[in-house]
Amino acid sequence: MAPTKKIIAVASGGGHFIQLLRLRPAFEGHQVSYVTTIDGYQEALGGARCFVVRDASRWDKIGLLVMLLQLLTVFIRVRPDVVITTGAAPGVFAVRLAKFFCARTLWLDSIANAEEVSMSGELAGPYADLWLTQWPELERADGPVFKGRVL
Amino acid sequence: MIQAVDEWAATSDEEVVAQIGPSGLKPLHLKYQQFLTPDEFTAYMDQARAIIAHAGMGSILTALQLQKPIVILPRQAALNEHRNDHQLATAGRFRETRGIHVAMDETELLAVLQNLNTLSASDGVGPYASAALITTIRDFIEGRSV
Q1: I need a labelling partner for A13 at 20 to 30 A (CA). Which of A100, A107, A150, B56 fits?
Q2: Which CATH superfamily does the domain covering A6-146 fall into?
């Protein structure tokens, strides 16, 4: 039995978060804190701990700053060993913040990005310890690798 | 999309529940809310006979898992509906998947809706990612090399 890890699992609300929830068996036996941008996943989460942060796009600088500070608060409270994200904006911040907490990071690009890696993936992927795509044709030597899909 | 479904609903005796978003349109023949929480959305999908949605992965994955036929109308950058055409890519990749029915415009959507009773549903997709992906992520979490 591997020692229990503290995990932050983060994704924007909607499709990104639904993909994150499909990874749950990988987190079993560990202490997971979810982070997303919309409230109302209580049933889907089945009682797991979840923090809600502000949603923002790259055009909304103030929103992004609020999101970053809220994420920082979550990181200070959780002190994660591992950060897992399926994107988008909060995942980019989480991958960068993780370095200050010496947490290892995994970016799983959304299955919606079938023809090119997402813009957020290109921003965060190079900083992630493991960068995954869900489409084998998008594998690159300096980019993501394919290890399976969320379905 | 909401307008097309509203017009169709006027001629049909199906009960239609819609999340209309911020567009400001007020449908006449749909029961609607501007925004549903994710749990509410899933509960409505669970009660529905079929789903009509843009080609977002949340709707698609949930419909496959609940074994409901889903009709998808991809958002297109050319119509200023999205910042890029990843929904067209999604529609292209999933159009052969059983239970997913792609409509490229409102006319095609109405044609699909005329055949609502015969639309196939998915055979069922499990609630979790592929075993290979789960193993990779588990190994990563527990510090084994992947």
Answers
A1: A100
A2: Glycogen Phosphorylase B; (3.40.50.2000)
